[in-house]
Write a structure and sequence with these properties.
Blueprint (H helix, E strand, L loop, with lengths): L10 H16 L7 E4 L5 H13 L4 E4 L7 H4 L5 E6 L1 H4 L2 H10 L5 E6 L2 H4 L8 E4 L10 E2 L8 E5 L5 H13 L3 E4 L10 H13 L2 E6 L1 H5 L1 H11 L5 E5 L12 E6 L4 H12 L9 E5 L3 H11 L8 E4 L5 H10 L2 E6 L1 H5 L1 H12 L3 E6 L10 H7 L23 H10 L1 E3 L15 E3 L3 E8 L4 E11 L4 H11 L7 E6 L3 H5 L1 H11 L8 E6 L5 H9 L9 E5 L19 E7 H5 L13 E6 L1 E5 L2 E5 L1 H13 L18 E5 L6 H11 L4 E5 L3 H12 L6 H7 L7 E5 L7 H12 L4 H10 L3 H9 L8 H13 L3 H10 L3 H8 L11 H7 L7 H12 L14 H4 L5 H17 L2 H11 L4 H9 L4 H18 L5 H28 L1 H9 L10 H8 L2 H4 L2 H12 L8 H9 L23 H14 L1 H25 L7 H32 L10 H5 L4 H21 L2 H20 ...
Parallel strand pairs: 1-2, 1-3, 3-4, 4-5, 7-8, 7-9, 9-10, 10-11, 12-13, 12-14, 14-15, 18-23, 19-24, 20-21, 20-27, 21-22, 22-24, 27-28, 28-29
Antiparallel strand pairs: 5-6, 16-17, 18-19, 25-26
Helix pairs in contact: 1-8, 11-13, 18-23, 20-21, 20-27, 23-24, 24-26, 28-29, 29-31, 30-31, 32-37, 37-38, 37-39, 39-40, 39-42, 40-41, 40-61, 41-44, 44-58, 45-47, 47-48, 47-51, 48-50, 50-51, 53-54, 53-57, 62-63
């Protein structure tokens, strides 16, 4: 809160304030004029700051880059040059001139900033001051950050209260707390030392204590000091010296301590208020009583409650110090009221200390007459309520007050009253004559739909004469409602809307946007208003996750079952139970509505004004309260003379009645509030619409008074029967009229309705509004989180600097309450969602550092490299300007919108403005794909939505590439193969490969550069025969190969030998030749291996076997080379910052799934070779098996190269996919095989002996039957070909014979088995294979191009000489790598700096890419408009044709209508329209 206007200050105090201002700016306590220099971008903040300077009559002159230099500027001397630092100001020429002026003519330099990032650079080496509250740039909130003490209390007091201040200070110092006292004697004594102490000590203090007295409140400097304390942003502790607190605004007071002469009590209260010593609340119940017998009775009663395990003490058993210690530690304080208790001074001190320390006090009445004898000092603590005589009553049905609601309860009991009438059924005594303490408050659980749905709401019974400031405090401070930003008052039942779905849609569509906004209040009359149910329907929508604030204001007298809301045992209900079904049959007019969140239940009361008495109605209370909120009277700084509208408000008349609704309309018109009457809802609304539309005169004088009102222009009618009516547009237009003078309120309002057109029309159409950075950032963040793309576009276009916004506010977008639960799960439940952690998560799932160019994760990094002097600040800001030009803030906002998982439209908007949209779209696909893979299987809807978003970005990337290829075919290849510094020097093709965007890789534009890399300088026109011969002649044939002409060396440029070596180099380094040589070498290896396996691996080791061992070892070295290259790739892609996110070595190696196969082959070969070398017969036999299996696997390894061939590749993928299908099918098939085999064999050959042969024969019977091997010769065999003798067939001499009837049963089972297994299951397998074939065939082009690029990428860096001849080359590269590694130990290479340097040059090439995005999106929008066939168009065409046919029927009743003809005509019309 700003200091009060200076016109009320004396001249001496005015001088003190101006001296304080000068001291704050340049540490010189003297009056000086101020030259405020700033950039026009800070105009909004500066205007607010100037208002604060002018309020203290400071001599201020302003200058920015638009202001011309005059004599006043050139001759400015002996003043303060106050420079407002910003990035724009630092790079301007005016900054250098202002800095020179500040260094001459005895001027002083002071720096301020509104930028939170610059505020972090405040230090003792510079004169930078920052605002604690940037949204309120007052001179009283300017701060220099200073390190305070661990616990330091500043005591603000008047000199006449020095004794009390000294006493408090001594007590605090006794407790080990450092504190200081504000000592001065008169305004004339306030010098530089006083100002310095006040300014610095208030800033460094951790707590503040204000000793309130009448002298303090009347003293100007004390109030100035209190203003400085208030603007630290901390609420202070007030020590009250008998000041009437009702005359003070207590919103900035954290605690009010009463004056106490007893130093022991004072020590306990100060200790508790400042939390000096951490006292743990123990499980103690303290009983205060003058009757020992009654105290013992209370102890026995506690044993039957939930507090039976608590330790119970009596205050009478302890001395004063011990009693006060127990009061500070206890949880419950029981006071036994009696006449002797009221007269006991010791018991009074005890309960007063318990009330001061906010302990839970449970009064117990010892006799029924004690309430009439209750003294005034006790009434202030416990009120006039009647309390139970039995302590157990407090804990029945959870009627006792809990810790959370105790403060609210005490406040309500002291502030809210109800009228006392003769017919009231209450035992409460009279308070303030005609009023008494309210007897109904708390929370109510309203059950609806027979108890299936229930909602909890706050409620209170009050008087219609209750003060409005008390009601606003109840709503906002006690009930915790957000500060109102929009108030929509609804009068009438609205039954007609609820019964008509079309009208309901009109109403809900207008409100569905604003119910999501915080600070939107709805007020309704009549708790059962049906319109509350309509609002409830809006809340039930999927995207609205919080209940809006709906306040029901209804008369207590006519509420059904109101007695269920009355207090119990002197305390409120937490909660009360209220069933609407039971209330429906109870006497009364209405029941509570479950959709209301708060209930104000006023009771009519009499008000006396100028000797006249009249009844105040509920409608008047409601109208006064709404006007009080509308005018912002709840604001601390709002003066009574200020009638400006702070909260836009409107009254909606939905149906309405002749009593309360008429009163609400008339009162709204009296104060100039707009009223929207919804015609078509029945009741009063239709009557008023009819009178106004047809100018009818009626006998009802109240209606005529409304129609002829002087503010009848505020009466607006909306016809809901008109299908073209736009109720939402009318509503926002009306609300905008209510806040015409405030651009900030207009923007908040238009954003609430998501109407960027209205914002542009009312705010940005004429002049650029002066908005503070804090407000713009807040508005931008809100619009982004709500996904309001059009509003975000408008803000960026008109007022938001996107670079500055992203740099300062990116961390605010990842508030824990705003990110989706799925992202929290994937991030890790125990991981805090900071920007750094989120960035690491993205890098981890992508395995690419996509945040290289713009470090937002550590917002304090620039501080480490800067100088803290004034010149250093300015130089750093200039450097920020150059770094911002290289950054891409839209990409970071794109990443954020993707991570939110439901902001696809906003993500596409940010993508369109990225500096490199093509790789940004590919990265977006990668993020969506990674998050979709990590989604829980149960979250199918989210996974489908992520897949849809991924496919949409794939479509965008391919569309832009198509547009590029169409308009600039020559530049397309360079664009795809150009290294991108922002993406760790990866190309678009490499990024698409990493993100697995197959559709992008299969684009025709991508095939050209892939093909060019594959052939390199060799011409693709060479025949297959030429290439094949060149491979086997090892380079002797290159001289007859065709090479690309554009890359051949001219004769004039080099001699013949140079051209020869150039051709040889180009031949051997081409990936196709590396691939061919490797494959040729591998075929030779397979030939030698087959030969050695067929003829060798005997008792002696031959040279062929040794060659095989060496060859396989070289293949192992090749696997090591592949792993090394993989590590190098990750180091390049992740950089130094995110290298810790690299996967394990095993994960890197197995990223290529073929490596699983390679490792298995090598292991089998190694095992076979070891077993063969051992020389034993058994090991050699087993080793030969392992070697044979490895030979098969080596042959199968060729399939890897086939995968990159256009014709063979799809076949390989089909084999892999069908193998997966076969695996699942075999599981099902084996159930049939095993079950049949065991059953049939057990029938035909019972009582067999368990052996391996038995298991083999059983499985043989079931499995081979599938392939037509029925084994009938064994089953139908008879003696002598088989035997029934167990000794014979167990010995294996003859097979066992099957008995004839068993044989028949077995053959029958075989026939049934073959029908299911051979006919049905195998055909199902064939159908599965067919489906797999078709599925792969559809994607063959995408997959083939992707695999082909993988092959090109692999052989582009493959050794020129294949293994095993390449082993010497491999060893050479190993030693070369070791040498480079050792050399780099002494030098530090900044890879990121090199990338940033190249980034400046590459940005020039990306403008063409952004242009292609613009053209593509424009074309896409135009195509969408041309091809869109809306429901409205269809309805019009159908209506025209039906109308024609109906006209024909009416003219010719006997002429039948040919429906086929009618349908055909309609289709033709639709096609023509399309």
């Amino acid at each position: 809160m700003d200091h009060h206007n200076s016109k009320g200050h004396s001249t001496e105090m005015q001088d003190v304030i101006l001296k304080w201002l000068t001291f704050l700016l340049c540490k010189k306590a003297e009056k000086r004029k101020i030259l405020l220099c700033y950039h026009s971008r800070d105009e909004g903040n500066i205007k607010r700051f100037l208002k604060s300077l002018h309020s203290i009559k400071a001599d201020v002159t302003c200058r920015n880059e638009r202001t011309e230099k005059d004599d006043e500027y050139n001759n400015f001397s002996n003043g303060i040059v106050l420079m407002c630092l910003s990035k724009e100001y630092a790079i301007s020429q005016e900054q250098e001139q202002d800095y020179q002026l500040a260094s001459s003519r005895q001027n002083e330099l002071a720096l301020i900033t509104f930028d939170p990032l610059i505020a972090q650079w405040q230090n003792t080496q510079n004169n930078l001051l920052v605002f604690d509250d940037v949204d309120r740039p007052s001179v009283f909130t300017l701060r220099r950050n200073q390190k305070g003490h661990e616990k330091y209390i500043y005591i603000s007091n008047h000199p006449r209260n020095a004794t009390e201040a000294k006493t408090v200070c001594e007590i605090l110092q006794k407790c080990g707390v450092k504190c200081s006292i504000s000592n001065y004697y008169s305004i004339s004594d306030i010098n530089k030392e006083v100002l310095q102490r006040v300014t610095e000590e208030i800033n460094i203090a951790t707590n503040h204590l204000v000793i309130l007295s009448r002298d303090y409140l009347d003293d100007e400097f004390c109030q100035f000091e209190r203003t400085l304390i208030r603007n630290t942003g901390k609420r202070f502790i007030a020590y009250n010296l008998n000041v009437n607190m009702s005359d003070l605004n207590s919103q900035d007071m954290a605690w009010i301590l009463p004056h106490e002469e007893d130093k022991i009590i004072m020590e306990r209260t100060l200790n508790h208020a400042f939390q000096i010593s951490e006292r743990v609340k123990k499980e103690i119940v303290l009983i205060s009583s003058t009757d020992r017998h009654w105290a013992e009775r209370c102890r026995e009663q506690l044993k039957h409650t939930k507090y039976k395990h608590y330790t119970v003490y009596f205050t009478s058993d302890w001395d004063k110090n011990q009693t006060f210690d127990l009061i500070a530690e206890c949880r419950i304080f029981v006071a036994c009221f009696s006449k002797s208790y009221f007269e006991d001074a010791t018991r009074r001190k005890e309960i007063e200390l318990a009330a001061t320390l906010w302990k839970r006090i449970l009064p117990v009445e010892q006799d029924e007459n004690s309430i009439s004898n209750r003294p005034e000092w006790l009434v202030r603590i416990v009120g006039h309520q009647r309390y139970p005589q039995n302590l157990e009553n407090y804990f029945e049905d959870s009627a006792g007050v809990d810790e959370i609601n105790r403060g609210m309860e005490n406040w309500i009991r002291n502030k809210i009253t109800i009228p006392r009438k003769s017919f009231m059924q209450t035992k409460l005594p009279s308070l303030n004559g005609d009023h008494t303490m309210t007897d109904a408050y708390g929370s109510v659980e309203v059950f609806a739909e027979g108890g299936l749905e229930h909602y909890v709401a706050q409620y209170v019974r009050l008087s219609t004469t209750t003060q409005l400031n008390v009601l606003s405090s109840l709503l906002m401070k006690r009930w915790g409602l957000k500060r109102p930003r929009l108030l929509i008052s609804i009068t009438g039942e609205g039954l007609e809307i609820l019964n008509d779905p079309r009208k309901t849609r009109f109403f809900t569509s207008a409100l569905e946007n604003i119910v999501r906004e915080k600070g939107v209040w709805f007020t309704t009359d009549g708790a059962t208003s049906e319109i509350s149910k309509v609002i409830g329907q809006v809340v039930e929508k999927e995207h609205v996750n919080t209940r809006p604030t709906v306040i029901g204001i209804a008369s207590w007298e006519f509420l059904k079952m109101n007695r269920t809301l009355l207090v119990k045992n002197g305390f409120g209900r937490w909660p009360a139970q209220y069933n609407t079904r039971e209330a429906a049959t109870a006497p009364g007019d209405y029941h509570l509505n479950p959709f209301c969140t708060h209930f104000l239940l006023p009771e009519k009361s009499v008000e006396n004004v100028n000797g006249s008495s009249y009844m105040v109605s509920t409608a008047r209370l409601r109208a006064n309260l709404e006007e009080y909120i509308r005018r912002g009277r709840f604001e601390i700084n709002k003066s009574e003379e200020d009638d400006s509208v702070e909260v836009p408000s409107v009254l909606l008349v939905v149906e309405g009645d002749q009593y309360q609704s008429v009163s609400m309309i008339r009162r709204s018109l009296d104060v100039g509030r707009h009223v929207i009457v919804l015609k078509g809802t029945g009741g009063l609304a239709d009557i008023l619409a009819s009178i106004t539309e047809h100018q009818i005169r009626t006998q009802d004088s109240k209606l005529m008074e409304i129609v002829n009102h002087q503010n009848n222009k505020c009466l607006i009618f909306v016809d809901l029967n008109d299908e073209t009516c736009e109720f939402d547009m009318v509503l926002i237009e009306v609300l905008l009229r209510d806040v015409m003078e405030s651009n900030e309120k207009k923007l908040r309002l238009t954003m609430a309705f998501n109407s960027s057109e209205k914002a542009k029309e009312h705010v940005f159409a004429k002049n650029k509004p002066n908005l503070t950075d804090a407000f713009k950032n807040q508005l931008m963040i809100r619009a982004m989180k709500d996904g309001k793309k059009d509003f975000v576009r408008l803000l960026i276009k008109e007022c938001v600097d996107i670079n500055k916004f992203t740099r300062e506010n990116y961390h605010k977008l990842f508030q824990e309450d705003d990110i989706p639960e799925e992202l929290k799960r994937q991030l890790g439940w125990d991981v805090e969602p900071t920007v750094e952690n989120v960035m690491r998560f993205v890098v981890r799932i992508l395995q690419i550092d996509v945040f290289m160019s713009y470090d937002l994760g550590n917002r304090k990094d620039p501080v480490r490299a800067m100088t803290f002097t004034n010149e250093g600040l300015i130089d750093t800001l200039k450097h920020m300007e150059s770094s911002d030009s290289q950054s891409d803030p839209y990409f970071y906002l794109l990443v954020w919108s993707i991570l939110m998982m439901n902001l696809q439209d906003l993500a596409k908007f940010f993508w369109q403005h990225c500096k490199e949209p093509l790789p940004s779209a590919l990265i977006a696909c990668g993020i969506y794909r990674a998050m979709r893979k990590k989604c829980q299987s149960a979250n199918k809807l989210l996974a489908d939505r992520l897949l849809e978003s991924e496919l949409e970005f794939q479509s965008l990337a391919c569309g832009v590439l198509t547009q590029f290829y169409k308009d600039n075919p020559d530049e397309t290849e360079r664009m795809l193969t150009r290294k991108r510094p922002r993406w760790r020097n990866l190309t678009c093709l490499e990024i698409a490969y990493k993100m697995k965007v197959h559709s992008f890789m299969s684009h025709e534009a991508c095939k050209i550069p892939i093909n060019r890399v594959w052939y390199k300088q060799i011409s693709p026109d060479n025949s297959a025969l030429q290439l094949t011969i060149s491979v086997f002649f090892l380079g002797l044939f290159p001289f007859v190969l065709k090479f690309a002409k554009s890359n051949s060396v001219k004769k004039d440029d080099a001699n013949c030998m140079t051209r020869v070596w150039k051709r040889i180099y180009n031949f051997y380094t081409a990936p196709i030749m590396r691939f061919s040589h490797t494959m040729a070498s591998y075929m030779i290896f397979l030939a030698f291996f087959s030969y050695s396996l067929l003829t060798g691996f005997g008792d002696t080791v031959t040279w062929v076997e040794i060659l095989m061992y060496c060859w396989v070892f070289s293949l192992m070295l090749d696997e090591v080379r592949e792993l090394v290259y993989g590590l190098a790739d990750f180091k390049k892609q992740l950089g130094e910052k995110y290298i810790s996110e690299r996967p394990y070595l095993v994960q890197i190696y197995f990223q290529d799934k073929w490596n699983y196969f390679d490792l298995t082959i090598l292991c089998f070969f190694t095992i076979g070779a070891i077993l063969d070398v051992l020389g034993y017969y058994e090991t050699m036999e087993v080793g030969r098996v392992f070697l044979a299996i490895s030979l098969i696997a080596f042959f199968m390894r060729i399939l890897k190269t086939f995968s990159a061939l256009e014709e063979l590749g799809p076949k390989v993928w089909m084999i892999a996919s069908m193998a997966k299908d076969l695996l699942y099918f075999v599981i099902i098939l084996m159930l049939f095989v095993i079950s049949y085999a065991v059953a049939a064999y057990s029938i035909m050959y019972p009582r067999s002996e368990l052996s391996f042969d038995l298991v083999f024969n059983v499985m043989r019977l079931g499995y081979w039957n599938l392939y037509g091997e029925l084994l009938l010769e064994d089953i139908e065999a008879e003696e002598p070909d088989c035997s029934f003798n167990a000794t014979v067939y167990n010995a294996g001499t003859l097979p066992r014979c099957a008995v004839k009837h068993r044989r028949i049963i077995g053959l029958i089972m075989m026939g049934i088995y073959l029908i299911f297994a051979n006919v049905m299951l195998l055909n199902i397998l064939i159908a599965m294979f067919t489906d797999t074939y078709q599925r792969i065939q559809e994607k063959r082009d995408n997959k083939w191009n992707y695999e082909r690029y993988a092959l090109v990428r692999e052989f582009r860096r493959y050794p020129i000489i294949p293994m095993p001849l390449g082993v010497p080359v491999f060893i050479f590269y190993v030693f070369k790598g070791i040498y480079k590694k050792c050399k780099q130990c002494n030098t530090v290479r900044d890879h990121d700096k090199e990338l940033m340097t190249s980034l400046k040059l590459m940005d020039l090439y990306f403008s063409l890419e952004r242009e292609m995005v613009y053209l593509y999106m424009k074309k896409r929008s135009e195509d969408a408009k041309e091809s869109a066939l809306t429901e409205e168009t269809i309805a019009k065409v159908v209506a025209i044709q039906v109308e024609k046919k109906l006209a024909r029927l009416q003219s010719n009743p006997g002429d039948p209508v040919d429906m086929e003809e009618l349908t055909g005509t309609i289709i033709k019309q639709l096609t023509r329209k399309k």
